[in-house]
């Protein structure tokens, strides 16, 4: 899946993958992104900005696999949620520091994109979640 797609209306998008439990995915789908829920489910400690939404850009080789592996921190059988964000919205979030990309510690040439809690209101309005990848076929 490409990270940026040109749609019929010429709007460009950025796609991201987030690995976690199906329960956490259901919570995001039903209630939107929440700093409180993200903090409760954080496995990264203070250095990893608990309360943020951690993703892997699908422009990265192996992005879905990497997101799945991150999901193993939450459950033995993770699923991957795909989030699609209009490119202009993403760029605005980056400009304000509400989203940023950084290397993944311990992995060569691997990037993660972190969405800070201040991005959640706009993501809950404008982001799409077009796909849940469940390798265990529970759905």
Number of strands: 6
Q: What strand order characterises the main sheet?
A: 4-5-2-1-3-6
Detail the poorly predicted runs: 1-8
Main pleated sheet: 6 strands, antiparallel
Number of domains: 1
Number of helices: 5
> What's the average pLDDT?
88
Strand/helix succession: EHHEHEHEEHE
How large is the radius of gyration? 14 Å
Inertia-based shape: globular
User: How far from one another are the termini?
Assistant: 21 Å
Strand content: 25-35%
Structural class: alpha+beta
Helix content: 25-40%
If you had to describe this structure to a student in words, what would you say it looks like?
With 139 residues, the chain is of the alpha+beta class. Helix content is 30%, strand content 27%. It has one domain. It has a 6-stranded antiparallel beta sheet with strand order 4-5-2-1-3-6. A hairpin with a 7-residue loop joins strand 4 and strand 5. The relative contact order is 0.23.
Q: What is this entry, summarized?
A:
With 139 residues, this protein is α+β, with helices and mostly antiparallel strands.
Please supply descriptive tags for the structure shown above.
single chain, 139 residues, six-stranded antiparallel beta sheet, 5 helices, 30% helix, 27% strand, globular, disordered N terminus
SSE layout and pairings?
Blueprint: E1 13-20, H1 22-31, H2 35-40, E2 53-57, H3 63-71, E3 79-86, H4 87-96, E4 99-103, E5 111-115, H5 120-126, E6 128-133
